[in-house]
User: Fold this.
Amino acid sequence: SKRIPASWLRFLWFMTCLGIACFSLIAGQAYASLYLSTLPHTSLDAGTWVYSWVITVQLLAQVSFFILGAKVRSRALLFLYKLFFQLVYHIFYRNLFARLRSPSQFATVQLLSSISVVIIFPLQMSRSWHRLLQIVVGYPQPWEDHADNVATSFYVRGLAQNVTMVGFLGWLTILHFGPNQHVYPFFRFTPSPDDPYTFQLTFLASCAIWGSELLSSLLARLIMNLAFKVDVSQIGLDEMREYPELVPACGTFLSYVACRALELIS
Assistant:
């Protein structure tokens, strides 16, 4: 009897992950379009939109991670896909900044995000959470490998977080002060009695959010280091040392996304 080669099956599973990734991009664009078509939003609305998108991305990501870990069995691809889904989420998140209409909306959205970072990632790394996964879904990995996976996810989250913010602030400034502002009139930020939204508010509020993100990430890293003796940065760098091809792959990927930030935020 003829048997299907294992390499061919792994390729088919990889193509399945690629399809999920393409679907996540389409879903993100549809999500952003729907958000923009229902303006204006309250602070509660903005928070609800963000967290419904977080749940959507996480569901798609977990399916892909399972396939790559259990079927394709490639740690390098798993690292890249973790980075990809974090970029998909953060691009939508940055897109939201250009549509908020008051400092209270910025504060509400970021407060929810910072609290989740400081609480959720250390919680996911805990032995209690690991034990719960073993009981509920038959999670096969030992706690040490589980902790490394959570640390790697947090590491790539930091990469995506900072690159998308640099891209957002860069294009925001270029479109506001550059010669092509007539092509993108939204980024002129001309205030009016009905819409007091300005470039200064957007830029300063985005920088404040970036500072809050860096602080919450630092606190989460300290908690994971003190509570579980896990160095997030070291684990992320070790992954790149073990798979050096990740360095140019991630660099190319991050540069491409930063260059496409204009298309995604406009």
